[in-house]
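tl;dr need the bound structure. longer version: we got a ligand (nicotinamide-adenine-dinucleotide) that a collaborator sent over and nobodys looked at where it sits. i said id run it. heres the input, straight from their email, havent touched it
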Amino acid sequence: MQTFQQYIGGAFEDAGASFASLDPATGKPWAQMPSASAADVDRAVRAAEAAFFSADWAGMTATQRGKLLMRLADLVAENAPRLARLETRDTGKIIRETSAQIAYVAEYYRYYAGLADKIEGAHLPIDKPDMEVWLRREPVGVVAAIVPWNSQLFLSAVKIGPALAAGCTVVLKASEEGPAPMLEFARIFDQAGFPPGVLNVITGGPEAGAALTSHASVAHVAFTGGPETARHIVRNSAENLASTSLELGGKSPFIVFDDADLESAVNAQVSGIFAATGQSCVAGSRLVIQKGIKDAFLARLKEKAEAVVIGAPDDMATEVGPLCTLKQRDHALRLIEASVAAGAELVTGGTAADGEGFYFPPTVLDCSAAPTAPCLSTEFFGPVLSVVSFETEAEALEIANTTAFGLASGVFTRNLTCAHRMIRGIRAGIVWVNTYRAVSPIAPFGGHGLSGHGREGGLQAALDYTKVKAVWLRTSDEAIPDPFVMR
Ligand code: NAD
């Protein structure tokens, strides 16, 4: 079995304990992973803190930080195929997706490399004579970055990139499910030439996560994961008063009007829910469809869902692979059962495949006669689509906004004014019109409500890793008068 190590203070080492990682395609252990103890977490944070104040990092120009990030971007691009194979092996995410996604991860590091020396302060036209006042933007400090198992290289790049561009240092806790790509990424990072301790990579479960997020020296927690874990993190932040950015789950509406281009909308829906085997926070998991197009849409969708190639995640021909964990599969089965009991109708799929591995087929549930079915409000994190129909635009908007989540949304229509009204009315951080699941380092990404707060990607994300210092400088040569001269 392959063995991985954690990365603290620029050195690779074993942790206090270790655990076996399972290959989701077989359900069998394939590698031994380090499990960070509270003492390991403490050393990682101290290494990040020492690096934060070190002359090597704090004294480095922003331009030089940008050059190191650019070197990292090149190394990620060079090693993308190897990283993709590891992510596929450890998480079951299919190789055609990990290959494309990790090649694009390099672009995120490139974007933040370019941004490092463009994070500017400001000069204020202050309302007092003989005074210069300006704002310095300074890095917030040590950042605790916590990621879930899906798309770890991507979800960590949107934290590490802007944090390092701003001059912070980072302790990244990889998920205990499928941490291999992050532990290997640490080896690549090590070659880029950053001072030791600027990035530390550990792994472990809730205990390591809690120790990290409540550590007194952590200034900001950048979290991606589920809402329940986010609540623990926010409670823990009462200890260190760290700021938080939370990228959580979703139950995103995919709204199709009668006038939509049928084939385009079906293709976008297929990729919106079945790509990444449905394990995507922005999965368009609620099809909100107008009655006139519903039958034709569902017939075409069923045809395409049943033609999807299910297979080994490391096969380029595979379109849907296994779920990452057995727990995910059991959750999907239970939720489908409860939804069918509530009146939802299975259009296709719905039962776990026999044989080894955590496979689950593309599934469509028609909930038009079951508006309270739990599948309409609970995240599956699997390839399961719930369908609900509407007659009027107002109804579509009402259905779109019924969940407590607010991450992404899609609108398919050729009617420009209707599209604009939907854009205004939908409560979500992202609205895709006549497209779905497009992302870019240049565009902010994040949600409302139970989907969290804070934005990743774009300029604002780098600014969020800074704090503002107001500087007052008196320019007069005249002596400051004695304030008590009248006494
Ligand atoms: P999770 O919340 O169970 O775990 C996420 C991470 O938090 C893991 O690294 C875990 O070890 C850690 N953790 C667990 N307990 C902790 C604690 N008490 N303190 C600190 N850290 C702790 O999520 P998951 O099941 O791994 O991932 C799936 C969830 O992530 C879904 O809800 C999905 O929608 C969400 N997600 C959101 C985005 C986004 O950008 N909005 C992207 C991907 C995934």
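gonna send this back to them w/ a short note. The domain at 253-433 is CATH 3.40.309.10 (Aldehyde Dehydrogenase; Chain A, domain 2).
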